[in-house]
Amino acid sequence: MSHPVDIHVGQQLKRMRILRNLTQTDVAQGLKISFQQVQKYEKGTNRIGSSRLWDICTVLDVTVAYFFDGLSRGGKNEPEP
Hints:
The chain is an all-alpha fold. It contains 4 helices and no strands. The longest helix is centred in the N-terminal third of the chain and has 16 residues, at about 5-20.
């Protein structure tokens, strides 16, 4: 079972990829990985390591903090009190 943070980060990846009008293949080519790996990241099936997250930020032109926007300290998609 995927961790809620991995799912959230994957959703953020997909959201920004779509906003940037990029395909999974475009992102994969920028990262030198397969588009299937990007699919797994987007679903939260595979965790994104810190160095890979840094590379994704470069490809999508976003900050690392973008991927954690909307998460509470408990890792759920709800605002902090």
